[in-house]
């Protein structure tokens, strides 16, 4: 079994990943700064479940704390690092850009440095479907140009991909970037639409329906996201000997570097998502139609050809199934 360091361990994806790795018998060291971007109680509840496992260690630090980070690397000597810690959210990046610069740029730079100096065999890091920005050609392919982000959050994620590539090239650090598409499920993030909509529908308050409902998202169930990560952990990317400098596919490289989409490959209309939620909750939503928000995009749709080819896995949980599980968890967790 392996020693795996997971940053953002008390976050939504980090929590599920740690739990699955521990079930498989791995040693897991989790770090998280437990910031108050959303309800810290939810993060503490996730963490409490993880700390029951004898093979789980945890330390509360921020990625910006380079000395503390290096100390953990020295002590734990991880075989693989999965970096999920980041300041999340598109809209919040407009209000508080410095949080994104500190966590997503300075913090990620520190992760790269620690991985470099400790000769880590594989760094997997979270990117985002947000990097596709102004692209309109769908489905979004990892071979697409992504030079037109429409939010600072997206720009930091694109920057992470570029930073990782430079370390893969200069220091032979195998790096895999994962562009996640609208991850949802039990224990999820309260700032996500499906979560806040559920709360509002149950309480009878209006839900904001942006772009007058003309939106589509490639909703990806949390178990599918984690399965994709688990399958990639033992597969550090190799140098692509066939990489063509003339076509310059940005998802692969002459360095040990690879980018994957992890999405359901099946975009769902926002109004259909609301219908599914209403049926799961047993109550109609009060809809407040609004224009498109700054930094948002009308549609996301993942091409997962590379993921399916390389690890033999295709996310396929239907939104109706995943949201039913989420609503059941929500009612139990919040006792409503």
Structural descriptors:
single chain, alpha/beta, 336 residues
3D architecture notes:
The protein has 336 residues and is α/β, with parallel strands linked by helices. The chain has helices at 12-23, 40-50, 66-76, 92-95, 97-117, 152-171, 193-203, 222-232, 270-281, 305-311, 319-333; strands spanning 3-7, 27-32, 56-60, 80-83, 122-128, 175-180, 183-184, 206-209, 216-217, 220-221, 257-262, 268-269, 286-289. The chain has a seven-stranded parallel beta sheet with strand order 3-2-1-4-5-6-11, with helices on both faces. A two-stranded parallel ribbon has the order 7-10. A two-stranded parallel sheet has the order 8-13. Strand 5 (122-128), helix 6 and strand 6 (175-180) form a beta-alpha-beta unit. Helix 1 crosses helix 8 (222-232), helix 5 (97-117) runs parallel beside helix 6 (152-171) and helix 9 packs across helix 11. The mean pLDDT is 95.
